[in-house]
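Recall that a protein's primary structure is simply its ordered list of amino acids. Everything else, from secondary elements to tertiary packing, is in principle encoded there. The following example makes that idea concrete.
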Amino acid sequence: MLCISGISMLVIGVLFIKQLAILFGATELILPYALDYGKIIVIGLPFVIISTGLNSIIRADGSPKFAMFSMLLGALINVVLDPVFIFTFHMGVKGAALATILGQIASLIVTLFYIRKFKNITLDKNSFNIEWSIARVVLGYGISSFITQIAITIVMGVMNNVLKIYGEISIYGAEIPLTALGIVMKVNQILISIIVGIAVGAQPIIGYNFGAGNYKRVKKALGIAIILSTIVTVLAALLFQLIPQSIVNIFGSEEGLYNEFAVKCFRIFLLFCILNGFQTVSGIFLQAIGKPLKSAVVSLSRQIVFLIPAVIILPKFWGVVGVLWAGPVADGLTFVLSVIIIVYEMKKINKLEKLYN
């Protein structure tokens, strides 16, 4: 299933890269760079999809350190090769894309070596026959994560197009909002990745103990995950509010309107990022206890149900800055929804705990 998905994405990317770039809001100035990057990065799609999937299986097999090593190796190769290709070989965005896919290939090679070392799995030819009864279960439990990732993509497309429309009639122009918010979204993705790492680390503990009827440990694992993720988001929120310009400078030295809008992006769009830890942990917790539909609701609510309407409506009143206020609006509403769902599920777990313990 991973191979089929990866190859399908590769074919779509190769055939429709220009149309996709335009669909996601690339202006005439940005389009050449998007194509230079995109034509290379799509080659790595099968590698990153397969390695990411195998990495999750390796963690489930009881080897989280090996899984971490394979991912860190790819990231390290990417970081080391980026400046070499971009500055030494003067390859620009093409070099950044090449460094990325080489890191992805390295991660895949390492994960493939683990196949012979599985502790709890023995593979034979019959293992590769797709049984749809099993596939449906796998897809069901993974639907929330899929929705989260695809929703981020849809949101970026909508936001880019709205930024382009309202940016062109503002003092900033179209390119500054697109570039600045792109940086903010990338930084926010790093934050979300850390939170997801905490939540995914707790997921097998929660799932195992929920299945075993050890509800006390389920609640404890959830509590620890929420506390850790909240600490991370509090620290991030302080950085975003106190030193946004320093973060912007990491991505290149600019001045004037660019810096002004980039700082606004961090301070407004990520105003309620402190709530993202609870939202993300809640979604993955619901997956772990076998509630994929409710998990999907939490994932969909932030990206699709709340954020996209806010992105479309608020700029009508506040122009291009209205796009930025869509972030805290969506974060606040999703947090309220997540609290309601988790409180409801906790009541059910407490009843089960009293019943069986």
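The mean pLDDT is 91. The chain is about 80% helix and 0% strand.
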